[in-house]
Design goal:
By secondary structure, this protein is an alpha/beta fold. It has 6 helices and 6 strands. It is globular, with a radius of gyration of 16 Å.
């Protein structure tokens, strides 16, 4: 069980509308991180939908924007889950990541030195691979460390029920591995930051 002093894993992902397979996959990985003793905070599809299109020249940020940026600032690890739209990440997820430009002048900008777990969901295998590749590229640009394993969920083959249970135990294990890896690498990230 995580305490308020426990390190924080922030999850980012989902789609607008109902709770999607992407968000359910994310929550499975986040549960695994929580099982490792981490606090968790998920920004799902409805949370991300509250973020206006990122305007770098805006002088005032909405409450939703401030909450998102401030929570990411406190993170010891990140998990990003995106559906594969037309071979890449969704605009909803990309807009949230664009907002992290607000951290550019922080002592720890963006995802610097943080482990970042990646999940892609798509109706078929092709888009999962290209979406994970896009996420890895973005995380590198944000100075984060993508974890060695990323989970690809083909929603043609894998189903989630209303409670978030997964039809394929192998896929469930892969999603849990993403959460376990970010939790296990987070203490190392803290050591790197402390040495600077």
């Amino acid at each position: 069980m995580a305490h308020n002093s426990s390190p924080l894993v922030v999850g980012i992902g989902g789609t607008i509308g109902s709770v999607s397979s992407t968000e359910r996959a994310l929550r499975t990985a986040m549960t695994a991180a929580a099982d490792e003793g981490f606090r968790t905070h998920v920004f799902g599809g409805e949370d991300l939908a509250r973020l206006p299109l990122y305007n770098p020249r805006a002088v005032v940020r909405t409450e939703a924007e401030r909450l998102f940026v401030d929570t990411v600032r406190k993170a010891s690890a990140i998990i990003i889950a995106s559906p594969g739209y037309h071979g890449s990440i969704s605009g909803l997820v990309k807009n949230a990541l664009d907002l992290l430009e607000e951290t550019a002048k922080d002592a720890r900008p963006y995802f610097a030195d943080l482990p970042v777990g990646l999940i892609a969901t798509a109706y078929g295998w092709q888009a999962t691979g290209s979406t994970i590749a896009a996420l890895r590229s973005i995380v590198h640009a944000l100075r984060g460390w993508p974890t060695p394993f990323a989970a690809a969920v083909n929603t043609q083959q894998t189903r989630f029920d209303a409670e978030g249970r997964i039809s394929d135990t192998v896929v469930e294990g892969q999603l849990r591995l993403v959460g376990q890896q970010v939790a296990r690498f987070a203490p190392l990230a803290g050591t790197i930051r402390a040495s600077h």
